[in-house]
Queue: 4 jobs
Job 1
Amino acid sequence: MPTTLPAFADATASDSALRRFLHGLPGVDAVGLEARAAALGTRSIKTTAKAYAIDLAISMIDLTTLEGADTPGKVRALAAKAVNPDPTDRTTPRTAAVCVYPDMAATAAAALAGSGVKVASVATAFPAGRAALDVKLADVRDAVAAGADEIDMVIDRGAFLAGRYLKVYEEILAVKAECGSARLKVIFETGELSTYDNIRRASWLGMLAGADFIKTSTGKIGTNATPANTLLMLEAVRDFRAQTGVQIGVKPAGGIRTSKDAIKFLVLVNETAGEDWLDNHWFRFGASSLLNDLLMQRQKLSTGRYSGPDYVTVD
C-alpha cells in the first residue's frame, strides 16, 4: 500500500497528529481570496492569446456523462466527439479524457483505443460515497480492470466533517493502492465542506494520501467549481510542491459552461500555480456542455462568424 511522504510521516501517524497538522494550516482570508479570484477574472485576453487559451481548454476537458440513462451508444458518441470534436476542422485538439461510470468504462476504452484520449471513471460509490470500504474498492478494481486510465473518487464527507481525518486519509490510501497505474483524482465536493478552511484541509489531506489530482466537485449538487475554491486549491498544490517537490493536478468540475469562464480559470492557473500547470497532465475541466461553447468560439475566431448552437452536436 502507498505511504505518505517521509517529510509528513509524523503528521499522519495518528488521528490526533493529523488533526493538529490540518488545523495548524494557516486560516483562509475569505474576503481576500474572493477579491483576488474576482480581480484575476477581469484580465483582458487578446485575440491570439484567446485562440491559444480556447485550444488549451479543449485539450483539458474530461468530457463527461454521468447519468442513469447512459447507454453504450451515448458513450460511443461521446468518445467520437472527444477524439474529433469538430469534424469540419481537424486541427481542433482532442479532449483529455472521457469520464463515465465504471460499468461504461469498457465501452469507452474500446471506443477510444489508440486515440490518446484517456478513460476516466468515477468510483467509490459516486456521488455520495456512502458505502462500505470493500464495496468502494471493488468499484475501483472493476473500473481499472475495464480499462480506466484514471479514477475519480469521492471522499467520505461525513467522516471529514466529523473530524475523522485519519479515516478519510486511510481510505484514499487504500483506493490509491487499487488504482495500480491509473491516476487518482480525489473529489472533495467543496459545496458540502462549508468553509474555505475545510477546503484547504481537504486539499492537504488528499495530497498527503497520494492524490494525483484534487478535484472540486461531483457536479451533482448546487454549488460546484468556483474561481475562489479553485484558486484555494491551486495555492495548495503550489505550496505542496514547494515543500515536497511533488506536483499535483487540479480539476474544477461542475458549472463551467462557457469559454469566458474557462479562460478565467486558466488565468487563475497561470497566475497562482504557474505555467507548469498549463497542461492537461496537471489541469482538467470536468464538463459536458463546455466543449460546445469552446467549439463555437473557436469557429468565430477562425471565420469571423458565430455559427450558433446548431453547429455542434447536442450531448
Job 2
Amino acid sequence: MILPLSIPSPELQYLQLGPFRIYFYALCIIVGIIIAGIWTARRLGQRGGERGAVFDFLVWSLVLGILGARLYHVVTHWGDYFGEGKNPFEIFAFWNGGIAIFGALIGGAIGVLIASRITGIRFWSFADALVPGLLIAQAVGRLGNWFNHELFGGPTTLPWGLEIESTNAAFPIGLPEGTLFHPTFLYEALWNILGIIVLLAIERKWRPRWGTFFALYLIWYGVGRAFTESLRVDPSLLFLGVRTNVLAAILAIVVGIALFILRRHRHVGLENTVYLPGRRHPGDTVLADTADTNEYYHVIDRGDGTSVSASETEALPDASLEPASGVEPSKTH
C-alpha cells in the first residue's frame, strides 16, 4: 500500500554517456570519498600534520578497502556466486552492487597502516582525524543503495516506508505488490549524521586522542549498524542463527570498548605530535636538516658580484674595525 509520505525508489540507476554507463551508486561512493578526504586533510593539518599526506592514505585505503569490501560481501553471500546455475566470475562485477562496509573497514585499516609507515604519521592519529569524514562518507554512500533498490528492511506500515517493485530479486516471496519496507539506508545515513554531531561535541569537550576517538566511532557505528542489519531481509550468511553483519556490528562495539580502555591506559598524556618517533612534518624537516652550519650555510652577497660562505667569513678581520674606503682613521687627541 502506497502512503502519502512513502519513499519511492529512483527510476534511474545510471547515466548513459555514449558507450559509458555511470552508476549513481558509484557516484555516491566517489562523492563520499572526496568529502572525507578534504575534511580529514583539514583536521590533520590543524594537528600539525601534512595535509597532502592524506592522498597517500586515500590511495592505499581505497584500493585495499574496495578489495576487502568485495571479499567480505562474497564470503557472506556465498550462494549468490557459487553453486548450480551461478556464475563465479560475477564476484568481479562489483559495479552491480555488493560491497560490505565491514570489509572496507578491515581492508582500509591495512591500507592506513601501510600509508602510516610511508608518511610517518601515526596510525591512530590519522584514524582519529578520519572519524567525521568517514561517517559522512558512509552516509552519502548509503544513498547508493537507494539508487540500486537494495538492502531494504522488512515490511512496515510506517508512513515513510520504502517502495520496492515486486519484480526486484530481493522482494520477499508471498508479499503483495505495493508492500512498503523499512528504508534501512536512510536509518543508517541519519544515524551517521547524528554521530558526527555527537562525536564532534565529545571531541570539543574532552579531546580524545591516541585512537580513543576512533574507538568511540566503532562503538557508535556498531550500535546503529546492529539495529539496521537486524531489520534487513536480503539473504545473508548466518552464524548461530544470527546474520554475520549483526555479529560484525557487535564485534565492532566490543573492539571499540576494548580499544578505548587500552589506549586510555597506555597514553595518559597529551598527543603533542601526530608523527611517529624520528619522523616529522616535511616542512620542519628541511629546517632541521639544514640547521648544521658546518654543512649548510647562507651565501653572503658582498655587492661586487662575488660571494663568500659563512665559514669563509670567519677568516676575515672584523669589518667593524676596518675604516671606510678612502677615509683616514681618526686620531685620538
Job 3
Amino acid sequence: MTAVALEDTNPFQSPDTGVSDLLTLARSRTLEDRQRLLMGVMALCDQHPAASQELSPVLTDIFLVLARQAEHDIRKALSERLATASWAPSALVNILALDDIEIARPILARSPILKDEDLLVVLVQASLEHQIEVARRPHLSARVADAILDQAHPAPLTALAGNTTAEISAEGLRRLVEHSRRLAALRAPLARHPRLDESMARQLYSWIGTALRESMAERFAITDIRFDDAVDEAVQSAFSSLGRGTPPPPVEADRDEMDRRLVQKLQAAGQLRPGYLIRAIREKKLGLFQHALVVLGGFTMAQVRACLTHNTPEALYYACAAVGIDRAVFPPLLYEIRQLNGGPPGEAGNAVWLRGALSPQSAARAFRALIGDGTAPAA
C-alpha cells in the first residue's frame, strides 16, 4: 500500500470516530492495519498537538514500534507529515533523519525537533546526500556550519555556500573562499553571497570568470586586480633595472596625468564601470574619481570640478546618477568626498536623492542645466 492510498483511505478525520477506529486497528496484527494505525495516531496528534505533547512518552513508544514495521512509502509519508510538527517525538524524528535520503529529506530540511547535536550525528553517520541536505537547512547554526567546513567534502561545502540563511561566521566564510581556490563550484554562490566582504571578494575575484567578475566589480568597486598589479610591477621593475630603487612619489601634475591615462586604459579594456568611482573614493584617490566621472558621464573636467566645489551636493548627485551610481550609495559617498575635498560640496539645498530614482538621461540633463559648462563661479 502506498502513502497516497493511505491518505485517500485514512478514516481518522474527526476526533469523534478516530479513537474508536484506532482501538479496532490496535487489535489487528496485519501489516496494513498497523500502517493505518500509524497514520491514524498521527492524524489525531495533528488535530490535538497540545494533548499529544502531554502523552509524548506513550506516543513515542507507539510511533517507534509502528514506524519500524512500516514499508518505505509509509515511512516517507510519515516523514513528510512530521517535518513541520512541533509535537513529533524526538526519537522518531532522529530515526527518520537517518533513514534513506528520500525519507530523511523533509525532516532534515524542516523539522523543528532536530537540534544541533542531532544534525552533527547525521553529518558523521549518514550518507553524503544526508550531509548535503543538512548544509541546505534554513538558518543552519554556525556550530553545524563549522562542522561541515571541517569535513571539507566538496558537495556539502557547495550547498553551504549557497545557503544564504546559514549562520556562517566571518571566519567560516573566509574558509569557504579559501576552499574555492580548488573547488570551482563554490565560486558562483560565494560571489553572490550577501555577507561576502570586500577583502574576501578581492581574494575570490582572481579565481572567477568574466561574468562573475562584472557583477562583483559593480558590487565591490573592484577593477581587474591583475591589471593594477601588472602596472605596479612594471613601474617597479623599470626603476629597479635602472638601479634607481623605488620610484619617487609623483608631483601633482604628474599624478593628474597618470590618473587620466589609467582611466583611459581601463576604458579601453572595458574595465571602467560605475563601481570604479566608489573604489577610487574608498582608496582616497579623488583625482581618479574625477577623471573616471569625466569619461563615464561624457562631462568636461571643468564641469566635474565645478560640481565638487558647488555650495550644494545636488549637481554631484546628478553626475553620479547619470553614470549609474545608485542613490542609496550616494550619502556615504558624499561624506567621503567631503573628507577628501576639505569640505565641499556644501550643505545648501535639499537632499534630492531622497525624492526618488532618476534615469541616467534625466540626471545628465539636470546636471548640465545646473552646472552649465563649469566655467561660471559656484553659486
Job 4
Amino acid sequence: MRLQRLARPAMALIGWSLAFSAWALGDKPLRVIVPGPAGGTVDIAARVIGQQMSADIGRPVIIENRPGATGSIGLSAMLKADPDGNTIALGPNNMLVEAPHVMKVPYDPLGDIVTIARVALTGYVLVAAADYPAKDFQGLVEHLKTRKGKSSFASYGTGTVSQYSGLIFSSQADLSMQHVAYLGSPPALTDVIGGQVDIMFDGMVTSLPLIKSGRLRTYAVVGKNRSHYLPDVPTMSELGYPEIEFQGQVCFFGSSKLPPEILAKLQAIIGKAASVPAVRQKLADAGLEPDVNTDTAVLLAENRQLSQGNAAIVKKFDIQAN
C-alpha cells in the first residue's frame, strides 16, 4: 500500500486543527499507556505519534509502558484513571478481539473500551529458518507431510492470530502439527531460526528485519492482499487457504465513559498527528501500514465481527489459556 494512497483531503486537516485548538489550552500531560515493552513496535508507534501530538497541542505526551497479561494490565490501568481524556492507551486491537476469548479480563472489552482511532495496519507472514529444507510453499507442505505428527509450529501467544493460523493450516493440510506457545515473537523466532520449531505465522513487523537479513525464509503472507513489503510472496488465500486471512490493527483506546466532546477532540489530535507525512513514513519504516480511521462506529462494528470470528475459532479448536 503506497503512502500517498492513504492521504486525507486538506479540508479534513483544517477541520482537525479547528477541533483540537481548544484542547491545547489545558496544561496536564497527556498520558498514553502502551500495554507492551519499551522498544517494541507498538511502543515505537506511540512515541512517533506522541511526539507529533505534543508538538501540535503544546502539552507533554508521556508514554507509559505497562506490559503483561496480553494487554489487560495496561488497559486496566487506563480504565482506572479518570475518563477525562488525559489517559488513553495505544496497542493492537487483538487485546479486545482475541485475548479475552482465552483469558478472563476484568472489563468488557467491547463495552468498557472505545476505539478512539486506528492509526496503522499490520500483516502476518509464514516463515521458517533460512536453511529449512523446503524452498517454497508446496515444498513446505510436502516436507511437513513426511513429518506428520512430529512437526511443530510456534506462536507468540495462546489465543492469537499466530496460533489460529497455525491450527487452521495444520488441520486443512492434514499435518497434525504440535503448537508451541511463546511469550512474544522474539523468543519464538529464536527457536524457529535455531531449528527447535519448524514454522511460525508471525507479525510482519517482527519478522521483516530477519527476512531482510537472510535469517528467515518466507512462504506466504496472511492478509487480503499481498504485502508491498514482500510483493512476490503469495497470500495464504491464493495458495488455497482462504480461512487464513487476518490483519492486525494498531489503535488508540479510551474509556467508553469519555464525554463525546472529549472523544472528538482526541480523535482530532490523533487523526492530525498520524496523518503527518513524516509520521506516516516512520510508521512505514517500522513495518506498519499507516491507516487513519476515526469513525468509532465503524471501528466498533469491525471489532465485533472480528471477535465473533475469533470466538468461533477458539471453540472449534478448543483453545484454552496455558
